[in-house]
Write a structure and sequence with these properties.
Layout: H1 2-32, H2 39-57, E1 60-69, E2 75-81, H3 82-87, H4 89-97, H5 99-121, H6 131-153, E3 169-171, H7 172-175, E4 184-186, H8 187-209, H9 211-221, H10 223-228, H11 233-255, H12 265-280, H13 285-302, H14 305-310, H15 314-329
Antiparallel strand pairs: 1-2, 3-4
Length: 343
């Protein structure tokens, strides 16, 4: 039982990333009808927003500390972060320690701007083009963005730790009545799942209960009629592209303590996220979220030692096998709509 609970927790953790990226992908496809293969790059850029803010907060200058000496007996040179000068040592250390959560505030406007520039500068020219053209141009854009990140940040992963308060693990076993230390799970992975649930809930609430969201949903269902009512639906869809980029970026920001950012992390998640979207049903937001968590849990169970001893490598292909089975029985996916990508 403890092994099952642990794998479910692992699946929810991984499924959170899949669901957030797939949610952004589906928002873009549902509003603009664009198959955006650059969406994984937005996840990567969000992760490097956290790296960038961490580096900014640790910028320092050199002072001479008369209370310390080097190996020659001379007064030692000490690097002092600028945040110490501005906020004091205690507050400055706390700000540096909480760099990843603070990166959320930094990443939202950056990702909104990146999404706006991407949509207005390139993708708007491909609205009426075939989906194959959209895939080619956005995949090329993803490669360009990946190489830009590689040029400025290097090819090696960059460790970006979580705050010290969340570096430990929670004893789920003791909380559920099992023996202590049977089910130990990192705090930050729990936080990531809760964070993903909040973002997903916020997106659905925004679309369901705000006037802006209602107009967007109406435009997704019948863009021409909404336009005839005098509503500039194109502007609203551009804003939704920026919001989808922000969702992907926030997913990347909070994932940095789990997987150290590297230039190819966007591509690593992109293909799996598209599989999630297809399994959930193209254009279906609930389907994307449901498929994300479902496939994350299945992948987690397929990674168990007992399973791999019988079927080596199953964890590498389980998502694709499930996708094949679902699409054979439900060609539109779990919650897909009739007529979407069927022309």
């Amino acid at each position: 039982m403890e092994a099952i609970i642990l794998q479910i927790l692992n699946g929810l953790d991984k499924g959170s990333a899949y669901a957030l990226i797939a949610l952004g992908l589906t928002l873009i496809f549902g509003t603009l009808g664009v198959v955006n293969f650059a969406h994984g790059a937005l996840f990567m850029i969000g992760a490097f927003c956290a790296v960038t803010l961490s580096r900014i907060l640790t910028l320092s200058h050199t002072i001479i500390d008369e209370t310390k000496t080097d190996f020659l007996g001379n007064p030692a040179k000490v690097e002092v972060p600028y945040v110490h000068d501005i906020f004091g040592v205690a507050t400055g250390d706390a700000i540096i320690d909480w760099a990843v959560p603070l990166s959320i505030l930094f990443a939202v406007p950056v990702m909104m701007a990146v999404g706006y520039i991407m949509e207005r500068g390139l993708i708007k020219h491909f609205y009426t083009r075939p989906h194959a053209d959209q895939i080619l141009v956005t995949f090329g854009l993803a490669i360009v963005l990946q190489e830009v990140i590689k040029y400025f940040y290097g090819a090696n992963p960059i460790p970006t730790p979580a705050p010290q308060a969340f570096t430990g693990s929670f004893d789920f076993g003791a909380a559920l009545g099992f023996d202590p230390n049977l089910i130990i799970y990192p705090y930050w992975r729990i936080i990531y799942f809760v964070f993903a649930a909040v973002i997903i809930g916020a997106v659905f609430a925004f679309l369901q209960y705000t006037t802006f969201g209602m107009v967007v949903r109406a435009g997704m269902a019948d863009r021409e009629t909404v336009g005839l009512l005098g509503i500039n639906i194109d502007r609203r869809f551009t804003i939704m592209f920026g919001l989808a980029a922000a969702v992907a970026g926030l997913a990347g920001v909070m994932y940095t303590p789990i997987n150290s950012p590297n230039y190819h992390m966007g591509m690593d998640f992109l293909v799996l996220s598209f599989v999630v979207v297809v399994v959930g049903g193209m254009g279906s937001l609930p389907g994307a979220v449901l498929a994300g968590f479902m496939l994350g849990i299945l992948e987690s169970f397929a990674s168990m030692r007992e399973v791999l001893a019988i079927l080596p490598g199953l964890n590498q292909i389980i998502i694709y096998l499930v996708a094949i089975l679902i699409l054979l029985t439900r060609p539109r996916g779990l919650m897909g709509r009739k007529g979407v990508m069927e022309d």
